[in-house]
Amino acid sequence: MSIDERTDTEPQQRAATGPLQAGATAMFAAAVLAALVVLAVGTEVGQEIDDSAMRTVGAGRDAQLSVLSVLGYVSIGAVALIVVGCLVVAALRGSLRLAVAAVVVIAGANVTTQLLKRVLIDRPDFELGVLNSLPSGHTTLVAASVAALALVTPRALQPVMAAGGAFAVTMVGASTVVAGWHRPSDVVAACAVTLAWTGAATLVLRHRSVPGRGLAVASLAGAAASGLALVAIGVRPLAGWAGFGEAAVVLGVLGLVVAIWMWLTSRLAG
């Protein structure tokens, strides 16, 4: 086969693998969500690990105010503006399907999160609190908004979108943990819910898959920059230097999870 022939077949190959990748991604996300519900919520060991992880990081008064100010920007009004932005970009790209998909991801992910948190998931009493907080509503709002924006963003700008999206979701997700609003599993579950809806939406859109190497680097860079920003504003181990390792692991794992989520989302988008 000549070089020209191989080049000609690449778009068709990506078009064929796109729906398969979307379906597999949605099922993977659903499996992660189910595992979190069973292990992090439904078992005593899981609850203990999750609760302990939440308590490894904290912030002084000034840093706490900074974290809370970040979370204060997460609102229905902000999401409404993002929806309008998605509709405008989709219209400029001449794609009604992209507009519908963006709205479906935002609405579907947020409704699913509220149903899971308030109706469907019961948290067993292992003396660590019975109020279920999984998935995180704040993280879902931001993650779904980022995913919707990624769906309507042109392919050439996907690396920029990946870096910015990973930064935003890491910042908000980690801030909910630092503020004591959510456990780490709540943040991961929010990403899983959003990824499942994004996979389902792109399965219907029948997008071609996007080469992922540059997207992976951009996603990792965005998440890492967010972690450094949290440290810069004063997020510290609650146990002092003795707890540095545990706090670094918690923030590092959250950042890595968000980077993987952003990478998978970006590969489906565009």
From TrEMBL:
Coiled-coil blocks: none
Keyword Membrane: yes
Top-rank taxon, per record: Bacteria
Pfam families named in the record: PAP2
Species name: Aeromicrobium marinum DSM 15272
Name of this protein: PAP2 family protein
Keywords (A to Z) from UniProt: Membrane, Transmembrane, Transmembrane helix
Transmembrane segments: 20-43, 63-91, 98-116, 136-153, 160-181, 187-205, 217-235, 241-264
Record InterPro entries: PAP2/HPO, PAP2/HPO_sf
Annotated ranges, domain Phosphatidic acid phosphatase type 2/haloperoxidase: 96-204
